[in-house]
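Each record in this resource describes a single protein on a pair of labelled lines. An example record follows, reproduced without changes.
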Amino acid sequence: MKSNFLRLSYFAIAAAGILTACNQENVSSDIANSGNVLSISVSQNDFSPVDAESRAVTDLTNRTTTFENGDKLGLYVVSNADGSYHYENVPFTYNGESWESESASTIYYYKNSDYIVYYPYIEDLQLTVGETGVSGAIKTVFESKSDFYTQNTADAYEAVDLMMAEVENPSDANVTFNLAHKFSMIEISVPVRKYITTKEYNGEKFEYNAPVKLEWTTPLKYGDNDVTPYAAGKGIYRFIVKPGESVAVNIDGYVQYEEEPFNFSNENASLTLTEGSFKHYKVTVEGISDQVTTRDLEVGDYYYSDGSIYPYGGQTGEHDLKNPMVEGCIGVIYEVTNGAPNTDWIHGSVLSLKNVSDESSAWDWDKVTIPDNIDGVWIDENYELIVSNNNGYYISNLNEAKNIDAIDGALKYESQCPSPANCSKWYLPSAGQLWQIVSDLGGYSTTSSDNIFTQVSGRRQYFEKINYSLTLVNGTQMVGNTRLWSCTLRNNGGTANAWTIEWAGDGDQFKMLSRLSYPEKS
């Protein structure tokens, strides 16, 4: 679930004890007829504000829960006759358009039964069902999570944002669920430096904000627990609370945009929220206004885990800043406009702060065969084709490519450094995208007459410029003999090679060349 850069009423069943599951492959007499295969559709409600103030700020950022490919929810179907399960915790996965069952057997519609779905899915969910039924038992599991108060990332926040819906004895096999938030939410907004581009992307100007660091002088408390809210972007911080419980909210701390802290002390309050509601607190900081500055994205700007962008660029514009914030930075923008072609991510591309495509995670030809007919995967020694090839996202996500060590390493980097909701996940660059890092971020100007496939001395300044961008935010510098792998292939005399850029002589020389899989197999 996600709530595009550079791209989330119940019915009490009178049953007690731990319900046991019947075999999902058994077809009972409760099935209306053998042709009635269950089909589900899902809509969702948003959190509702508890006062007029909250309602007035709903445009700060999107609170609507939306789903993305791969999201899972769980389904229970409970017999009205004896409270037994027809289906227990069956996962349904969202494919971008609809929800599909992952069960190996067909999921049928049962009459005289109640249908309950919940999100997010827990594979090994164990329920102790009492008077509040299956819905109440699911809610109890989420309330008792040991990491309930650890909500400082998008995944951690979404893991406790329980949504459920129940349909009592639906009349046919097409069941519609309207998911509702079962907990409550507190939201705190702090002012941020806002920007809008002059350029339009798909007919719209792009809005972004600079990163901000929030620190609490008096810790945010939830019961006896300190809470670190989830930074949802645009200066919005959120955390989930249990409805009906008194929550002490002490808004006392400071925000930091570069080096100077701005103190605030707005409110100390205790409140109790109802299920599905939220309370918004707006922090004001003297010296930071709501004015929006016009500034286009630039190569060299820094990208952050909450989707914010530090306007560093080439330090040539009047609105550029000079001291990029290290905390939360996940990469440096190395090109603008192109993004990931044929996707929703159209504003630009980001170089990670760590090279995961080194010599220990290269191509392994024994694992995979890439078809010859996939456009843009195979490119021979051709300058124009190389520099125009920017489909790394597409190639990295081909089913045929995901087992390759170099691509797998890039995809798995997502678990170490999660990408924001408004951008793609990490991937291995194509040959053209590698060259853009050198030419755009490094500042190396090339033409078709240059031989980018030959090592030439006197190129250290480009190497150092890239390293300087990484150094400012504590990224990993490249050293001499660094090899950067791409996901673009070359048929080298009947042998499949991958294109790389290799720096030699402590960065004084570099070239693009094709390499066999490395390390060699013993």
User: Anything to note?
Assistant: DSSP finds eight helices and 27 strands in the chain.
